[in-house]
Amino acid sequence: MKIIISESQYERLFGELPLSLKRRITLSDLEFLDVELVYYIANTRPMDKFEDFLEHVINNLLYEFIMNIKSDEIDVDGDDEYIEVSRDKVMGIYWQLKPFLEKRYNDRIHKAWEKKKSLFL
After folding, report:
1. Mind listing the pLDDT tens digit for each residue in 29-54?
2. Residue 44: φ, ψ to 5°
3. Higher pLDDT residue, 59 or 83?
4. Are 102 and 58 in contact (CB under 8 A)?
5. What is the CA radius of gyration of the chain?
6. Which candidate, 65, 59, 71, 75, places its Cα nearest to that of 29?
7. Residue 110 CA, distance from chain mean position
8. Are 93 and 74 in contact (CB under 8 A)?
């Protein structure tokens, strides 16, 4: 099912993202990230500092997203050096999502961290 949102809703959601990223990110991408977040929270070990836990979850989630969902944007026609440059370019574009994801998921991750901390630390 395709989700339709208005221009103002789109701008509120993606307004802070760089233009190069706005053109590439879709609502289905966000749906993937929302679903996968649960997995990465559950499979991240408890940590003393929330900031470390947040960074670990977001970094792994974003890496997985780039390599599995956006990997078709990596040009694999060429030698190893060219492929690496292409991969780094795509990674650089999508890595700009990190502050957006930290803001979007901060509360959910913080609640999970508190729960894990109370159970394991």
Report:
1. 988 999 999 999 999 999 999 999 99
2. -100, 130
3. 59
4. yes
5. 16
6. 65
7. 16
8. no
